[in-house]
């Protein structure tokens, strides 16, 4: 079983009520020690990695203005840049993987290759990149685009982006740097990449020597058909959000098969599914924790976040009517899922907004440590996932209960590592307990 921790360097996580939770430290996301506590707790729990999701705009789709999202504190209201935070966490940890989101639509390959090569050197081989193509008009507005690129064009650009960054990361042979008095580097072991493509023209080489991992671990979370092809070609870790076992198994089977179509082995991709655990001393206590968190979820916050994710303004839709079928250019996989759940449970738009605010459809598990461990293991055994993205309901202490209660239970069962076998992230992902 592999475990990743889901973080946003801001007021929310998957739960958009996170900042309103009585146990959350409001404004803590602006302070370094907030992240240091989280990272040290997760490393104590032997997590494979922690990673920060990210977005490059406040929500501006709901009501075609930023006022609503900021007034009520939706998922995109405030986000620090995750990479400087990871640099600080690299100094405070020694084993846990450190992942950050960067957009292929609003970055340049050369600068992004430097950011992650730098992190990989400074962390001793623990860097990971969650590759996104970005989803909404607010981001396009911040980067000079009249409108967001069409969905599949974003992925075509992303494919070329990954080709260029991999060429750059490997433009130095591992032993090229000599640091000798008479020879700084074996220059003939460092090659220009001379990339000329539809989207990028990059000469290279990178001005950073080969890093410990060679290149960062590549993470992706697309769930559309095109998104899954992209993942099958490039991703070593794939995140997904699926509400039940049949959907988990279908996604797992499909993606593992796609990997083989791209000449890769099924085990080359670790599929981690998002889950939000509520761990109690009793089942009743756990349910109370879950109800307390969910009661803080405001339907209009969820609709503001939904508007941002789907790049559609839901402010004009009737709250008491079902969620209609609209063409979305954002996270198509998630919208399809929300429509299916809304139909199954006959949700109104307000209900769907509340559900979305609770956790962006991330399934919630409430129970004792043994109950949560049972559920996690049942998904692994049923080939629903290779592991999980653990999503917090509050921060900075939202992972403490899981690390203090569920990890020891999983370790006792032999279902999770007792300790790290190596120092690098790719080693954690290769190891099975
Ligand atoms: C667990 C998870 C985390 C994600 N994190 C981000 C993120 O940080 N930033 C972002 O723009 N999109 C994020 N997404 C959305 C996907 O990265 C992807 O951009 C989106 O699913 C669109 O792809 P699709 O149309 O192929 O589904 C996330 C999705 C999932 C399931």
TrEMBL record:
<feature type="binding site">
    <location>
        <position position="223"/>
    </location>
    <ligand>
        <name>FMN</name>
    </ligand>
</feature>
<feature type="binding site">
    <location>
        <position position="151"/>
    </location>
    <ligand>
        <name>FMN</name>
    </ligand>
</feature>
<feature type="binding site">
    <location>
        <position position="224"/>
    </location>
    <ligand>
        <name>FMN</name>
    </ligand>
</feature>
<dbReference type="InterPro" id="IPR016215">
    <property type="entry name" value="NTA_MOA"/>
</dbReference>
<dbReference type="GO" id="GO:0016705">
    <property type="term" value="F:oxidoreductase activity, acting on paired donors, with incorporation or reduction of molecular oxygen"/>
</dbReference>
<feature type="domain" description="Luciferase-like">
    <location>
        <begin position="21"/>
        <end position="294"/>
    </location>
</feature>
<keyword id="KW-0285">Flavoprotein</keyword>
<feature type="binding site">
    <location>
        <position position="101"/>
    </location>
    <ligand>
        <name>FMN</name>
    </ligand>
</feature>
<keyword id="KW-0560">Oxidoreductase</keyword>
<dbReference type="InterPro" id="IPR036661">
    <property type="entry name" value="Luciferase-like_sf"/>
</dbReference>
<protein>
    <submittedName>
        <fullName>Thiophene oxidase protein</fullName>
    </submittedName>
</protein>
<comment type="similarity">
    <text>Belongs to the NtaA/SnaA/DszA monooxygenase family.</text>
</comment>
<keyword id="KW-0503">Monooxygenase</keyword>
<dbReference type="Pfam" id="PF00296">
    <property type="entry name" value="Bac_luciferase"/>
</dbReference>
<feature type="binding site">
    <location>
        <position position="54"/>
    </location>
    <ligand>
        <name>FMN</name>
    </ligand>
</feature>
<keyword id="KW-0288">FMN</keyword>
<dbReference type="InterPro" id="IPR011251">
    <property type="entry name" value="Luciferase-like_dom"/>
</dbReference>
<dbReference type="GO" id="GO:0004497">
    <property type="term" value="F:monooxygenase activity"/>
</dbReference>
<feature type="binding site">
    <location>
        <position position="155"/>
    </location>
    <ligand>
        <name>FMN</name>
    </ligand>
</feature>
<dbReference type="InterPro" id="IPR051260">
    <property type="entry name" value="Diverse_substr_monoxygenases"/>
</dbReference>
